Amino acid sequence: MRVAWIISLAAAGLTGAATVAAAVIAGLVVSASGVPSWPALGLQGMLGALAGAGAGFAAGAAVRKQLARLRATVEVVEPAEAPAHRLSAPLEEIARVHLDVVEQLAGECRSIRSQIRQTEIRKHLAETEVQHLSDVLHSLRDAVLVTNEFNELVMANDAAASLFAFRREEALNKPVNKVLREAQIVGLIKEAAEAGNSNSRKHAECVLPRDPEPLNVEVSLSSLADPTREASSVVTILHDITQERQVSRMKNEFVSKASHELRTPLSSIKAYIEMLLDGEARDEEARREFYEIIQHEAERLGRMIDNMLNISRIEAGMITANWENVDLVPIAQDAAELLKPQAAEKQIRIHFQRPHQACHADVDQDMMKQVITNLISNAIKYTPDGGRVTVAPDLTDCDRSVIVSVSDTGLGIPPEALPKLFSKFYRVDKHERVAKGTGLGLNLVKQIVESVHHGEVGVESEVGKGSRFWFIVPCKQGG
Ligand code: ADP
Fold this sequence. Notes:
- The protein is α+β, with helices and mostly antiparallel strands.
- The chain is built from 15 helices and twelve strands.
- It folds into four domains: 106 residues, no CATH class; 101 residues, PAS domain (Beta-Lactamase), CATH 3.30.450; 68 residues, Helix Hairpins, CATH 1.10.287; 152 residues, 2-Layer Sandwich (Heat Shock Protein 90), CATH 3.30.565.10.
- Strands 2-1-5-4-3 form a five-stranded antiparallel β-sheet, with helices on both faces.
């Protein structure tokens, strides 16, 4: 009982390694003498041994302090115990011999502690690295999925979760075919996992059915082979190429449309010249008519080429505006007057709504005239015979900007077409038969108003009732 009490006292009084060492000494003493020696050793003797052990510690001072407290406690508790000098020599010898063991243990404890510190530092670094990698993974715009050899999803970034509409916490560790609805992607992952043991990379292009439009994605699959297993883990990266595909489709469409549109006036010019050369225009009146057609077609050709060049110049930042502070009212009126003959051909009336005051703004006059002409020309083109077009310039935004609106009683534009209307080459499908065009006019309007004049363009429309196109430019540029 007393032994146990002393050991627990020692355990309470000493810290970590010292406690272990004291316990070890106790064990060694018992085993060396072959009989339980603690009672014979006496408390003072044991304290002597512990004191010796304490002296071997690196943190010896602290241990010695603990021992002194322990010794004092024991003297109070058992004053009648045998004094230290009565400690038998063999036992002292044993204690001394085992002091080395204590020192060794203390050294090992120190080394373990330093190893623990190093491990903690390494763990912290590894955790930081993992967090960093996870931040990188989640910041990627491409969707990343990692599956194991059992085709279970083990990692997915935010882009993947949003592309395939799953919640990451719920999807992880589930079979990939339960997480993704796209059988094609699931099939590709399975194929890559079973592709064999070599580290391989595969590319494919897929169309994902999505609302409102399908997505084109480029899929890269890398199998991470493990020679000990039959299947591989697979890293799947999905890159959205919808826009690239759209742009290249539009470019192709534009090239074919533009060449078709350019060919039409060219063919007509060629045909009339041939007729003139063949003497098919018998009188002066017929010849004049032919010349006028040739002139008209040549002008149309020139306008188309100009539109294309102007758009690419503005986009390339190569155009410099000829800034002047001018009244936009006469500019709008001129454009309306110029297009009256074109409107008259369809019995369309152009109404010019004159404002009460002048509408001065810093603009490039020619560009403004081009914008207003494009809007009125469209209004005439897409308004059935007998309709009405209204041109209205005015001041707005507490007289800090000028607004010019062109309204018509025409075909109107379906709501789903409105967001794309100012895009290059865009034409409303149903309007293809109504009038010829290249889908460049409104894009040029937008480029001139927004990129060059720092203004804004807009449209409101109702199918079958008509449209109202408008643009706003600030009265003062740069202020
Ligand atoms: P386009 O040469 O085809 O007229 P635009 O860029 O000027 O090219 O116009 C793009 C498309 O917008 C047109 O093809 C037409 O479908 C539609 N659009 C433009 N203006 C109007 C309008 N006033 N009313 C109805 N649709 C219009």
